[in-house]
Protein 1
Amino acid sequence: MPANIRETKIGFGYKTQTDLQTANAAADIWSLTKTNATLAGISLVTEDDGAELGKGHEFPTQIFPSHYEVRFPIEKYLSSEIAAWVFAFGLGNRVKSGTSPAFTYTCTPQNPVTAGIELPAFSFIETIRQGASAVLDRMAVGCAVEDFTISIGSGPGRANSRITINCIGSGKLVEPSGITLPAPTAEHSLPGASAQVTINGVNYVSNRNLVSLEFGWKNNIRQGFFPGSGTQDNAAIQGRLEFGDREASLKFVARFESGSTELTKLRQQTTGTAVVSLQGALISGTDYHSMSVTFHKVGFRTAVVGDTDGIVTVEVECRPMWDETNGLLTAVAKCSQDNIGS
Amino acid sequence: MAETVKLRSPDGEVREVEATVESLSPLMARGWVQVEEDGGEDAGEHS
């Protein structure tokens, strides 16, 4: 029977794998929703002998398995749960505080000197009609966050607070997955309308000028094929997922009016902090589902005046920089899920 | 009063600090990692 793409379910480890080749235990998997229809890109890359001499012609006579490539995007409306997860797995260093039902995850980029350059790994499960009539039931073991982007826009609805996560897998696969996906975790939205944004000394919420904002992180994961990295189906898989030259990004569009300081700050290369916060529903007491990212030192790389829907605006690309005291950035998320990134 | 967490420095020093961005950021940037109550190192920083 044909399957509707909306029957797709995904689940992934909210705890880290013990090592790249050991899958998460079933109890450490959670199931979240997503908005993109794209299925995981799991490719067995092959090569042939067409270019080899000795056959008497230029045509291939054999195909050889080369290696597995696993890449998958997760696009979602932003929630406190996915924010906590992506900060822990994407940045690599996290401190958990709080007690049930409110846990706070404070995350920073992994320190390569003390923690190495290998990113925390998780297992990713993708199913359609899991069970006896499964269309898809597969698990990619040893996956890591390549990059993530959080976007806040103008207008009503959840679509104005979104996250896109791109992940890379080692290539190790288990099919069928052997793990029954749990019921979807109840997520708690972080609407764009709740945003608090202060960048380089300007509170863009109190002056009501912010139009949109986007920040992100990219690990530039190094290719992990090496002698002894492992095989599956006689094809190579990656034996490590290590970050390369990491990059943080922050850009925004704001209304530009008399007294706006963006162009002046660009010319003078003024630096300051940037703090972006979102808040959702009450957890208990004074604890709310929330996230906040602090860039400890930013300057303006570009500032271009234009228009958005007929209103004069300035599009600013910030350059996050290393602060000698506080480092590059600190990302905090608060939610009710325990042990994220443990 | 803010909640506290225990962190361990790369040199092994253990310090109890407030679980705030202001307190944690300078230490985490220098490789301090969380220590669980039983004294074991938390899995918070992957290695």
Protein 2
Amino acid sequence: MAAITAPYSSSKFWSVRFVSLIATFLGLFAVQLFIIPQLNNYDIRILTLGLFMATLAVSLNIINGITGQFSMGHAAFYVVGAYAGGKLTADKFDQVGLPPQVWLLIAVVFGAIVAGIAGIVVGLPSLRLKGDYLAIVTMGFGEIVRIFINNQDGGKQAFFGLDLGGSYQLKVGEKITQFWHVGLLLVITIALSRNLLKTIHGLAFLSTREDELAASAVGVNTTRIKVAAFVLGASLAGAAGVLFAHFNNTVAPDDGSMAQSFLIVAMVVIGGMGSITGAAIAGFALSIVPEALRRFPPISAIDLMGIVLGTIIAVVLANVIKKQSFTSSKGWSSVMTVLGYVFCLVLAFAAFKNFQSSVSPVIKGVFILLALFTLISLLFTKGKASLPGFGYFLLLLGVVVAIKFPISAVLHKIPLIEDNLSKTTYTPSDLRWALFAISLIVIMIVRPQGILGHHEWSWSAFGKMFGMNTPNKEISAK
Amino acid sequence: MNWDLLPQQLVIGIQLGAVYALIALGYTMVYGVLRFINFAHGDVYMVGAYLAYYTSMQWFDRNSMNPYVLLFVMLIISMVGCAILGLSVERLAYRPLRTAPKIAVLITAIGVSLFIEYGGKFFFKTSPKPSISQDVNVFSKPINIGGITLDGSQLTVLGVTLVLMAGLWFFVTHTKTGRAMRAVSHDFGAASLMGINVNRVVAITFGIGSALAGAGGMMNATAIGTPLDPFYGLVPGVKAFVAAVLGGIGNIPGAVVGGLIMGVMETLIVWLGYGGYKDAVAFVLLIVILLIKPSGLFGSTVEKV
């Protein structure tokens, strides 16, 4: 483990931070004024929901990544905030008569406080529990919240006759949240967790993650740190929830379902536990990329079977090839490096082709950025040395495509399959959760630390790909 | 509160608890051997229920068959199908991660769970399947014992559960493989040094646990009759996990007792008139247990918390 860098305390550092925060604020406002009006409602909704998920992932990263706890009920804080802020608006907005954006700020603060209190309630058991058990308790808390809200319909089973709309939904009645509000919250969340790591307090969080016993031995109050992490993460999620309530106009208990919590955890883990940029980008990407699948034509069941069988054969083949002696020879690796460059070119071409096609340039642009990001982060740890791996991947992909056609042809010949399945088709968009599950499993097997690990993303990895040896200026947490 | 209904509610609770106990056994065995929570276990249970549905409604002609034979065939198909599913999940997803950090395994388990659920959406379609409890019935008339009505399904659930548990108990305590299983559960590393084929033992554990979950799914589909949908296993799965923790995780009789307590508590909550909160009881119970007696009712070790 590399030495932990000294916290920044110089006044220059903080003034730079402050100026960049103001610049981001103005930039977001400009996006809201000039770019958002050009987009259709669908694109705005997709992009805004992406920002919501990114905020949730970054705020969960404070608990799971930076402090090393394992919370699996993060969506609960989100709905607690959403219901608190939404209920406040539904009941009081008309009576008070403040301008909407000022009111939104009040609602956000209120929701964040309520969610923060919920964070204390969940944080307290974390003092005694670790690992799997903490995970299951936080998950249980999430379910308790959902079931509690489900029953608050002002009826017989509700507490104090509380009416939150029950299992149906809560109508907020005011659509105040705009794109840039969510962007601002995301920037604040990122800035908070990043700046936290630059202070002495951040080191306390990190030391709690690395070794609780050692941390407490050098005088870190680990109890306080763990509860603080829960409160911080929860109130940021709660603030996001309030914005969501005023964006969507309604809140339903299922917005805080177990599946939602799992998704947020998956985003943090895929991005790399403890990596702020990783969480933000994985959160954004995982909520946007599935939309890309909507544009693909349906695929027939037999083709799908061909692809699955082809993949299995290719994986088996890869295992056999890996054991052969020629794979360690120099010629093989240079061929693979060339194929690796080809792979990057193919990816760039695919992104470009995608960009040219008709639908919504902004979404396409986002996809190109995400493809670029994935490429760079895969290169991140090894730089140029990871090119042979890409080449190998391209080779196997070619094998899959080559095998698929004969297999599908054979399957068409089998009467039992032909009769039952030849007319069945699947749209890729319906398959997206199954694809997501498979990629989750594969990422965990191939790269258990997540795509970025503990690192932060930086441009220098891009230079490494072309053999440039730029010094890494990023101050990594570890 | 209607006191006359209490005995009947208890019977229903025990029936529900028996199903939870069967699922909890799988959790407890896998946790005992590998020390990880197999989130996909509830989904294996869902697959078992669907297999029972298809066996009785499509693959076999239920009207011309002896109902006992049909039930037996359903049980066998569900158990074997789920065992195959469990074994392949273990081989493909969990074995490559044997040495990986715990969190990676947990996330993989969530991935497997999502995959079975959304894969199930394709094979089984999204629209819920109706309950088959009316179609597959052993007894035409319920039996009345001292004011408690027992119908055929309840007796079947209890009988099958008892037989399966007795079989499991015999297997774990009286066979060589069972002894190997206990050894692996006691100390994974030492067991492999003693010449036990650890991978084989883990696979057998997964197979047996999944088969029991399949039996539970078959009985829930047949006797209790909740409509089936691909997400049907999620909540019972988590409740069964709570039951396993309640009884002391890694402890086989503990899982059975925990499951029964869980089932009875759930029906009592409904009886008290707070049916809306019945799913929350499990989690409240879990939090209380973990904070007060983390080793569970029968657990002896406190290593995990």
Protein 3
Amino acid sequence: MEPVRRIVGRALPLARADVDTDQIIPSHWLKRLERTGYGPGLFEAWRKDPAFVLNDPRYQGAVVLLAGANFGCGSSREHAVWALLDAGFRAVIAPRLADIFRNNALRNGLVPVEIDADSVEKLVGAARRDPTTTIAIDVERSTVQAPGIRATFALDEFSRTRLLEGLDEIAVTLRQEGDIAAFETNRPEWLPRVR
Amino acid sequence: MGSTLSEKVWERHVVRRAAGEPDLLYVDLHLVHEVTSPQAFDGLRLAKRRVRRPDLTLATMDHNVPTNDEPAEDISARQIEAMARNAREFGIRCYPTGDPNQGIVHVISPQLGLTQPGMTIVCGDSHTSTHGALGALAWGIGTSEIEHVLATQTIAQTKPGTMAVTVEGVLPADCAAKDVILGIIARIGTAGGTGNVIEYRGAAIGALSMEGRLTICNMSIEAGARAGMVAPDDVTFAWLQGRPFAPKGAQWEQALDYWRSLVTDAGATFDREVTIDATALRPYVTWGTNPAQSVTIDGAVPDPDSLPHDSRDSARRALRYQDLTPGTAMREIAVDAVFIGSCSNARIEDLRAAAEVVRGRRVRSGIRGLVVPGSMGVKADAEREGLDRIFIDAGFEWRDAGCSMCLGMNPDVLRPGERCASTSNRNFEGRQGPGGRTHLVSPTVAAATAIAGHFALPSDLR
């Protein structure tokens, strides 16, 4: 995973609530075996509507997605995060993100930014009024800034370090081999084994 | 003080705890399927890592597989082959298509007795919450986390909050477990459980069969919850005893001692508590494109302007997509297809309930009816009871096990504009096929709807 410190750029005002991962990337895209190449499938059904905001050329090159509450709900498919990254997004801002989506985002360097609904609404308003509005997200300080708007978001220390350093989490955990092995010796005998 | 059920299971699985870090938890069982795992196995290969505990890892094929005699389409076949190849290479047991144990991952694991109280279970599928019905702490994970669990048999997670949903009283006779969970989601919303593990409690939950509890925990994710659980009790123990992977002899007694401790302590508190009156529940039908957009079958399509301000936009969009007019009685809405299946409602009890409704009747002309058992084991059980004949005689297609029309990854899809009464768990736009319109219902309502041609209760049928 690439380290992420600061994201600066345009924002796409999606601003719909309860956007599920089936909308972000429809299931037929999940038949692929790769981690990349999902960009063309992003919001595939909605994109067929010429008026859909993602088709608006003024927002081309947006790196921040301004989403509604409960964005990323539904299926656990990490492909939703891969599709957003593939289409150039580096952060999602919403009043609340679905749990699994947030976990998946953190593990791929897509910055999950949860801020109060009023601030999201202000950012959406700014991006709609002026699509060239620049939003800056600082991972180290947990801040979101746009002209006249400033908000902070919650990020635990571990997640922050993971983003800033682009940590290989498996390598980190494998260093805890002693703890894992010790735990295993104390597991009850009656727990099931598949083979 | 005291601890809740989910806290007890969590604490018992902490491998490492450090300030400012998520807990590192041990995973007792990792379930794997063909769709979300290939990139994880690729990651292992690239980093030259092995699967730490193949003996705690089980794979099957369910999302993509054909449920009839047709071969899988090329791209799905590639994924099915990749699953078989990865299982071989990394030494994992896999129940492939054609195996008598194959089926939807959340149906086969409880059925085999692999899902047991107090275990931690993860799978690259959000409906892993299903396994909480037996008192396991089970949740869905993404592909990066799958790779992490394969390599380390652990997972780093921040501790979730706790939430109690207490369902008091006696459920009306024409209501099923599906109506309980749809009623709960209608009340708390699609994000009502976000960040929390829900523990379902109360007399109405205790009175449910294991199949019913599996249906309820299955849809915890539709309320946004990290997981759902029911404290194990005599229903659980009776259901588990004698299953292939359940403990036997002295080990059964040891396990039972531990399992009986898996209840929320009297003094424990939850971060959030909700109480539902079971006696006030009715059979539900969803009208919209998220599982909270529902009314009882006696109701009508709502006017978005009558809804709370913040849900009007999505209601308007949903009604446009669903092609429904406010004020239309649910019983007047005709369907094109009926799907009885999925990890939500394709266990033997669900098939028995639906068969009882259609016995001696005919599916309304023009309606495509599909019955897809949750596992080949369920299929065999149903055929021993003659349920297949009842469905086939009524005009349903009787299929092999798989996820099928729940998510439209195999050829079982709705055509654009088709309307479906479905026992699955998601009514998202396009979920059952692009342009398809889904209404979530219980197995008996699905069955009655297939006969009547429009949404109906069994008691509506003549």
